[in-house]
Write a structure and sequence with these properties.
34% helix, four-stranded mixed sheet, globular, GMP Synthetase, Chain A, domain 3
Length: 712
Amino acid sequence: MVFQYTSLAADVEVAHHAVLASLPFPLTIEVAASASEVVLSCHFQAPRFDQRRAQAFVEALEVVYGALHRSLEDDERRFVASIDHMTAAQSARMAALGQSQPLLQQGHDLRIEQRVSRFARSQPDAPALSFDGSSLSYGELDRLAARTAMGLHHLGVRDGDHVGVCLERSLDLVVVLLGILKAGAVYVPLDPAYPKERLSFTLDDARPRLLIGAEGLMIDGSLVTVTPARLLDITQDQTNAAPRAQTDGNAAAYIIYTSGSTGRPKGVVVPHCNVVSLIAATKCEFDLASNDVWTLFHSSAFDFSVWEIWGCLMTGGHLVIVPFWTSRSPEDLLQLLESERVTVLNQTPSAFSQLQEADRRTSSDLALRLVIFGGEPLDCGSLLGWFDRHPETECRLVNMFGITETTVHVTAETITRRHALTRSRSVGRPLPGWRIYVLDPQGRMLPAGTAGEIYVGGVGVATQYLRREDLTAERFLPDPFFPGRMYRSGDHGKLHPDGRLEHLGRLDNQVKIRGFRIELDEIRAVLLEQPGVTAAAVVVHRGSRGDAADIRLDAYVVLQSGELADLRQRVARVLPDYMTPATITLMPILPLTENGKLDPKRLPPPVLTGQSHATARVTATGEGDREPPLAPDLKVQLRDIWRQVLKVEVGLADSFFDLGGNSLYAVQIASMMRDQGLPRLPLRELYLRQTIDGVATFLIGGDSSTAVATRN
């Protein structure tokens, strides 16, 4: 800041301006004061600042100065931080900047099942679902869902009741979800791959009337559990009265559980009208129509599935359900996309990066016209190769930012080659009916281009956290700018003058890894609950390669009693695979800052589970150098590939997952094997066998006796 006094001589003023012009600062404020007024001038360096941002800075300084001046006149003491640096009119303009055009709803049917039934009437013979060689038309889907609803009604399910669903992706899954909605109930999806203790917690918290699952499913012995087939059998005699059709669009449709900082997941309650609004807001923009073919790629317990299932069926499209193992193999997925002529694909950036690599190696004939990204930040620069093979005029790529609590998607940005070249972090403008605010820690509006916390208002805001009134009151707040409520996201971002949102990551202890939303505090809380653990910390490790596979969770614990192996097993029984730390390192004490907080910079490199004993095998008296007689060359090649991918020493009996492996590393291993001319390794076999010994046995034609439990 440079002060200029009007009483100075003219030649002094000229010299002063010469000095001012040579100042090395990106932004310089010049204050010209007289007895009657104060004039501010702003000098800035391009491209660090531009005219608009400099003007905004001066206006904010003027507002704060005026507030302080009035406080002094009134002999009132005020903290500078308590002063809003925008006027009411400026805040109103920013609030208007963060909203798109109004959402124009068509029709009065504001429930999901009503929209699907509309297509069952207008195109009963059109394909609705297909899975592994089987299919259902819209008419068949609607009839089976109606029979399922009747079976649920017969078993006592009534309006608003919660119904648990623990099924793999299949035709039955979609029929059951639609049937629950037709019964006026609320579906609670559970992933069968999750540990039993986590599933039990979800059921205890959601308190469903009954649970629908596969034959032999046993999670809670006191809960009525039925199979999809049993629900249909109940209606064989045709004596069951059909449930009364529901019309309340504000009623809950589903409850999806997300990671919670207290050590337990929290259930997000989302009403029908939110989902209907989401489809209405995107239908025209994305040209969603009955001739589209979608995929159901994600677990029903992941909110991306809401968009995949109902986005397709509420626009009359054909939903291709991707088998689990196909979803884990980019080559198999690419083949499915080609054979089924899929036009709309939804992917996390992590999954798409593997699909893109498979596409690069083949000459596939894809019908894709629209790819939607969501679930985690997108590195636009990684898409340049895709644009070379699939021009923007043929396949549209859209980056969408969203949150479970705001109904899957909030903003959308069509990605072009320009975005890729500039590595843009823009996630676009709000969808019609949604609103975006960027506020400071006191909840006040920030000027355009200034980073703060992202708040989301409008038609997508969920109802509540189930049975968490305290957390609901903390995160779901009255909207101070428009009627309704807004959700405090915990995400960091800035709103630009053109209304586009730039996403800058998280403000809290939450992370996203391969599309999954993870509270590090939840993992820490689970560790602290284990016997003998007196202190724990969880950090995210991001490797030097910078790709999604090179990200893992590392845990550090102070263990007063017990064995590390037992601790690993107990944690794995509680946390799903994507939340289970890749490493757990024993510490005598956790390093702390002077303020008593964890000092992550002083944590040592993690000890990978298999690293110590793998190294011992290699160095002990040459014993580790002698390969077993079974396919020695193959095992040597496999171990070399694993070492390159996992960046650790590898023993023949070391578990892939204990060495820090994940699904993306598995794809890299399979790709390197193919490049080196080794036999094809289905990812399912790597998941089943998990060791070099087991994989080698499979590749040379051995039996399945070495297989171990599947790990998802």
